[in-house]
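Hi there. Long-time user, first ticket. I'm pasting a complex I've been working with (about 706 residues overall). I'd like to know whether the download I got is complete or cut off, because the file seemed smaller than I expected. Thanks.
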Amino acid sequence: MELMPQALLDGIMLGAVYIIIAIAFSLVYGVMHVIDFAVGEWIMLGAFTGFHLTTWTRVDPFLLLPVVFILFAGLGYLIQPLLQRVISGHTGNPLLMGLVFTFGLSLMFRGLAQTLFGFYSHSIPSHFSTGSFFFQRGDFFLTVSTVRLAGLIYAGVITAALHYLLKYSDFGLGVRALAQHKEAAGLMGVNNKRTSASIYAVYTGTSAMTGVLIGTILSVSAKMGPEYTIFAFFVVVLAGMGYLAGVPAAALLLGIIQSVFLVYLDPGYTLLAVFALLYLILLVSPTGLFRKGV
Amino acid sequence: MNRTKVWATLAAIAMTVPGRAQEARSFYKVGVVTELSGDLATGGNVTKRGYDLWAQEVNATGGIVVGKKKYPVKLSYADAQSNPAQGAAAAERLITQEHVDFLLGPYSSGVTIAVGPVVEKYQVPMITGSAESPMIWLQKFKYTFGTIPPVNFTGAAAMRTLAALSPAPRTAVVFGSNDTFSKATATAFNSALEQLGIKVLKFNIVPEGQDLTPLLSAMKGMRPDIIAFGGHDEELIKLVKDLHQIDFTPKALLMHYGVTEPAFLEALKGDANQVFGGSVWTETTRTSSKVLWKDSPTYAAAAMKAFGVAADYTQGGCSAAGIAFQVALQKINAAPPLSDAKRVELAKALEAVDVESFYGRIKFATEGDYYHSNVGLSPLTVQIQNGVVKAVGPAKVAEAKALYPMTPWASR
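Hi, the file is complete. Here it is re-exported in full:
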C-alpha cells in the first residue's frame, strides 16, 4: 500500500499527458465535426520544431511554446480552407471525406518528417527535465518529477484557457453557435469560414505545443505520431465525442488505470485493461463517460 | 472454347506462376529486405548502411572474385515497413520477380521469422546481419543464417561482467518490451541473473512504447542494484530520461542494443554515460582479416567516411553478412546468375564458412539451439564512458575498467 500514493500521482501525471494530447482534438471534433487523423503528426511536427528551435537558439523549450503555437496556428489557418472544402462537398459523406483527408495529411507529414529529420530519436533538453521533489513519511514516499509537474500545470492552463475561450468570449459564443447550427449562426453574423479556420488554428497550435512538451518529457521521433493519435481517439471516445469538459476526467482515469496496472498487476495487460474499460463504458453508455457525447 | 480464350487463359496462368528465368548478367543481384520505414526504421537504416558499405567496398575492388573473373554486386532493396507480413511479401517479390541470387536480411527478429519460411520455400539463402532473437534459430531454417549470435548467447556474458563488480550486486529488476527481440533479451537477462544467484525482484514484459514512470517509481522503492531492460532505441532513451526524472540511479543500468547507437548518446548526452550494454563488436575490438577490411579500426574509418556516423555492431554485422556470402560464393565457384542448384550449394557452403573478418570470426553453428547463427564471436560487455563506447568485459578483452556504481544523476 505504500506504493499507492506514488501510483496515483504517476497516474495523474500520465493523465496530464493524455489531456494535452486529446483536448484540442476534442475541440476540433466538437466544433467542426472533423475527426482529425493527423493529430499525432501535428504533435510530432511540433516536437521537432521545438527540438530544432531549442538547439538553434539554446532557449528553454518552455519559453519557446508561444513561438511554436504561432507558427503552427498560422499553418493550420492556411490548411483549414482545404479541409473545409472537403467536408463541405455535396458528394460523398463529409465526415468520411474529412477523415480521409486528414489521414492523407498524416501520411504526408510522416513521410516528410522521415525525409527531413531522419530516423533517429531525439530528446528536447529543458531546465525542468533534471529536477524532482521527494517527500517521505514512514513507509510512504512520493517523487514528483518537475518536468511532469510542468506538464500537469500546462494541461490545467490549456484546459482552462480553452474553457474560457469557448464559454466566456464572443469568439467562443460564435464557435458554439456554429457547432449547434451552422446556417442559423451564419444568419446571426458568425463568419463560418473565418471562425472555423481560427478554431483549427487553435487546434494545430495547441497540438504543436503539446509536441514540445512530450519531447521534453519523453522523446521525439518521426514515427511517434500514430501512438498519440490512438491515445487521442481513446480519450475522446471515453469522454464522449465532442464533449470537451469530459476530456480531463477521461484522461486522468486512463492514466490512473494504467499506473495501477503497471505497479500492482501485470504490466503486460495494461492495454487490455484500458481497452476493456473503454468497451465496458461504451456498452453501458455509448455516448461516453458522462453521456454527453454525440 | 475459341483459340483466343485458350491463349488468354494460358497467358494468365503463366503470369501467376513465379518465373525463375535466368537472365544472363555479369553481376550478383542481391536482394535486401529490411525496415526502411515504420517503427523500426532507425535500426533498418543502420542495416542499410552496413549492407551498402559492403557492396561499395566489394565493388571498389572490382567485385567478388570467382574463377578468374570479378563480379560486382548490386543491391535491390525492399522495404519491410517494420511489419512481418510486409517483409515476407517483400522477400517473395525479390525472389520471384527480381530473381535475386541471395538475400541480405532484416533488422528485426519478427520480420526475420516471417521471411524465413519464404526463403525456405524458394531455397534462397539469406543472412541477417542484425536479428538476435533465439526464436529464429529454434525454427531450424535451412536457408536462414545470422552473423550476430542470439541474445541468450550474449546476454549472459553482460550479467557475468556485472556480477563480478565490487560491491557485488545482490538484486535486480528486469523488464522488456513486448516484441520478439526485447522479450528474448529480458528472458536471457533473467535466466543469467538466476544462474548467478542475483535475486530478481521484478520481471515484467511491458507493452511497446508504454510510459514506464509508474513502474520505475515502484522500483525506486525496491532499490534494485541492477536494472536490466530489453528494448529498442526510443524506449531506451525514454527509460534513462524517466530514471533521471524520478531521480533514481541504480548501481548498474544494463540495456541491450541501442546503447551503441550514436542517437542514444546524442539524445541523452551526459545521462548516457555509465550505461552498460551487450555487444559482440566495437570499433576497437582486436581483429585481423584478409577480406575487405583488415581490422575493426579500418572498417570504422571507412564507415565514418561513407556516412559521417560511427559504426555500431549491427552495422558491422551487416557488412560481415556480405563477407560471409562472398567467401561462400568463392568456395563453390558460383558465378551469377545463380541457378536453383547453386543456391542450394551456397546454403551448404555457408554452413562450412569459417573466416576471420574485421568483425571477428564468422562460423555458423550447424546444430543445436544456435543453429545457423554465428557462434564464432565472443560476447562483450560495453559501457559508455565520456561519450565513447568501451568494452569493459570479459577481462581478457576489456579496454577500460567498468565505472561502477553509477554516479547519481544530480552529481553529474
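A couple of notes from our side: Residues 23-149+285-363 of chain B form a domain with the Rossmann fold fold (CATH 3.40.50.2300). DSSP finds 13 helices and 16 strands in chain B.
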